[in-house]
Amino acid sequence: MRDRQNKQTGCLECGEELQYLEHDEEMKCSYCELDFISNVKCVWGHYICDDCHAYDAVEVIRNVCLSTKSVNPVLIAQRLFEHPSVKMHGPEHHYLVPAALLAAAKNTDGDSMNLKQALKVAEHRSANILGGFCGFYGCCGAAIGTGIFISAYTQATPLSKEGWSNANLMTSKSLEKIARLGGPRCCKRDTLLAIETAIDFFEEKYHVQLEKEEKIHCSHSDQNKECITVNCPYFNH
After folding, report:
1. What is the pTM of this model?
2. Helix 187-206 and helix 162-181: axis angle, to 10°?
């Protein structure tokens, strides 16, 4: 288990001590996967660029989703889970869900979507979903995030026909999946449930098959005092 406490002073990836090299080297950032020249890395070779090191959660999500080449939204989400700015629970997950799905869809479906603009739309819309929406309003923000994904992907408006219908249907399917598993809330569990539901829905409605994981293992149960452990499909036994 990674020592998350050490990430405050050490490597953001693993918490280990940072090394300062005598000579610059070409390194790939563990988060945005872009190449940089630097003389700092951890003892395990991890490197985090200055932007990813300094960004808040929303900026990290945007930065990673714009640069990733992954076609697997679950892996994109899990990559983002590891950044210290993405807390165990919080409204940043409401943006993370549509952002990861939009990035994977763009990388799968080619040039049919302006990802930068779509992420901007998703960021703006998800900012209106308050923390605790699941319990206080009866609608989990991760589920709404999948509806935002479909709406942004199809450029739907309140006057659209198919896009309007599918965005609402998408939210309902994700919300049912989350609700049937039961509470209390876990933003990591609900995010993964929502994304997995969206992958199947997206293929059914738009015939675009996003890559999916056969088995997903959670590495955050130690951070969640309300973890439902063996009752969660992602609990790592």
Report:
1. 0.84
2. 140
**Could you tell me which residue, 197 or 38, shows the higher pLDDT?**
197
Can you tell me the distance from the alpha carbon of 56 to that of 183, in angstroms, rounded to the nearest whole number?
Answer: 28
Rounded to 10 deg, the angle between the 73-81 and 187-206 helix axes is: 160
**Integer angstrom CA distances of residue 164 from 71, 127, 148, 228:** 25, 20, 10, 35
Residue with tokens 């989703």: 65
Cis, peptide link before residue 184, omega less than 30° from 0? yes
Are 79 and 33 a contacting pair, CB within 8 Å? no
Q: pLDDT tens digits, residue range 140-182?
A: 999 999 999 999 999 999 999 999 999 999 999 999 999 999 9
What are the pLDDT digits (tens) for 114-141? 999 999 999 999 999 988 899 999 999 9
| Short-list 218, 214, 180, CA closest to 196 | 214
Tokens of 49: 């660029």
| Structure confidence at residue 109 (pLDDT) | 85
Read off the pLDDT of each residue in 51-57 and give the average, rounded to a whole number: 80
